Amino acid sequence: MGVLNDPIYRPLSITFIEYREGDKLGFILAWFSMLPFIYIVSLCTLIIFRRDVQTIMYFGGFCVSEVCNYALKRFFKQARPERTRDRMGLYEVHGMPSDHAQTFFYFMTYLAIFVILKSQMPGSPHIRSIRNRVLVFTQLIVAVIVAYSRVYLHYHTVAQVVVGAFFGTALGCGWYYFVNYHFMQYASLITDHPLGKYFLIRDYSLIPRLIHFQYENEYAEAKRWRERRANYAKDQNIMLSGRGAVSNSNDNNTNSNQRRQWSEGIMSTDKSIRLYRDDDRQLIQNLVNEYLLAGSNNVLELIRRCPTECFEENLLFDYR
Fold first, then answer.
1. What's the pTM value of the predicted model, to 2 decimals?
2. C-alpha to C-alpha distance for 72 and 77, rounded to whole angstroms
């Protein structure tokens, strides 16, 4: 096959960023130019783990921004700077408005409004006010650097990044207003829908001090499981000792006191063990009585008779 017959390969222009060799500032700005994509990946990760309506709609605004940018570039049809224009096979033809500037200004505007109006970080009102101002100022500086990187690297003109920043800011304000003052009123329709429940979609918008709420509940749950694990071996030894008390007796007519002790060895040998629900308490008690009357001392066989879900859902014993 000759060279002329080889297929033509093109880079994915949206992530194809070049800088002049030896230009340290250009190298740094090239990484700043990648921030929108890093931010998008981080946002997708956050959606996967949080699955809350607010974050999903935040990402939805980015999708709207991309559609608008595509339409605006076809409307203005303004070429890119001359250096990039000479390598048009590597980049999209149109440059007005800058997609990077529009996307990142949308993200930063929406986030800045959210921080100002709904931030619930710990600290006094004065400390929160200072923290919010620092966060908003930092977001603004980063957005400006991202926009400047597109001009410095000759991917866009100043006018193209300014127009992109304007549309991104306008979309951030408008989308925040739409989501928080209109759409979130119907968030319960999503969370209560069978599909919403299947995908574990949540709405955190009405929970005050969300960070504290999540921390306190997750800390308490983790502590409870640590205590369960610590008591597990002790509780098993108590149950087996109850079985041993019966196995040492060869008399099928064991007195009621011994039977009661063995029953208690399974049902409530320690105050740290309690049955979770009344119906399961009755179920296990009936099984214990059945085995006592039969003179059986096989605790493992008794446990196998219990429903599997009693163990899988912690319905047999709750270690506190």
1. 0.66
2. 8
Contact 29, 152 (CB under 8 A): yes
Distance CA 128, CA 120 (A): 8
Model pLDDT for residues 249-305, shown as the tens digit of each residue: 444 444 455 455 545 554 443 333 344 445 556 666 666 666 656 555 555 555 555
First-to-last CA distance in the chain? 74
Integer Rg of the chain from CA: 32
Q: What CA–CA distance (Å, rounded) separates 29 from 41?
A: 19
Nearest CA among 143, 135, 131 for reference residue 102: 143
Question: Per-residue pLDDT tens for 44-102?
Answer: 999 998 889 999 999 999 999 999 998 988 888 887 777 655 555 556 677 788 888 99
Going by C-alpha positions, the residue among 68, 65, 61 that lies closest to residue 177 is 61
pLDDT of residue 263: 52
The widest CA-to-CA distance across the chain, in whole angstroms, is 102
Q: Which amino acid is at 126?
A: H
Identity (one letter) of the amino acid at 98?
S
